[in-house]
Specification:
7-stranded mixed beta sheet; 3-stranded antiparallel beta sheet; about 35% strand
Length: about 190
């Protein structure tokens, strides 16, 4: 009887080599997918921090540039005089370092100059730091510019926004020894 050789199958060596090649291709593909996913996450995190910083900076910029009445700065707190109908109010943007949040509070000024504090609402989260530096005419007290640096921190990333704003309406700059004193002097200026 004659043995017929079957040449349709694979040898053990061919199977091992084929499996090794497929393993290398699979490992390379998995590494590329993991690398791409990590790169996407990093870019997404950076763009999220950038976006949050830009939104907060834009909102704060609009409030500052359009200030028509007196304003004041004390450390990391910004006081902007404003009108709510017929009432004089002070928009208070203050930074809570423990919560990493800037809060906005609208305080009402009574007819006799007393201040009624409004409810504080979060204005911007994930704030690492904020600072203000006003520029005013020493003789008239009119402010012509305000510099602020807002630093947002998220995912271990810091993104500072450095803005120098020209004040359209040249509001009067009021100063005091403490935040409460500053707000009271601003209320007196607004009531005058």
């Amino acid at each position: 009887m004659k043995l017929i050789k079957n040449k349709k199958g694979f040898t053990l060596v061919e199977l091992i080599v084929g499996t090794a090649i497929l393993g290398v291709i699979g490992l390379t593909t998995a590494m590329l997918m993991t690398s791409g996913t990590n790169m996407y996450r990093g870019v997404h995190r950076r763009s999220t921090v950038l976006f949050k910083s830009q939104v907060a900076s834009t909102q704060l910029t609009e409030a500052i540039v359009d200030c028509k009445y007196s304003f004041s700065v004390h450390d990391d707190t910004l006081f902007l005089g404003d009108k709510d109908g017929e009432d004089n109010v002070i928009d208070v943007y203050y930074f809570d370092e423990d919560e990493h949040t800037i809060y906005l509070r609208v305080d009402r000024i009574g007819t006799t100059g007393e201040i009624t504090q409004g409810e504080a609402v979060p204005f911007c989260y994930n704030v690492h730091d904020i600072s203000y530096e006003p520029f005013a005419n020493n003789e008239t007290g009119e402010a012509y510019a305000l510099k602020f640096v807002l630093t947002i921190e998220k995912f271990g990333l810091n993104y500072p926004r450095n803005e120098v704003l020209s004040l359209r309406n040249h509001p009067t700059l009021v100063s005091g020894d403490s935040a409460a004193d500053t707000e009271q002097k601003l209320a007196e200026e607004m009531g005058a």
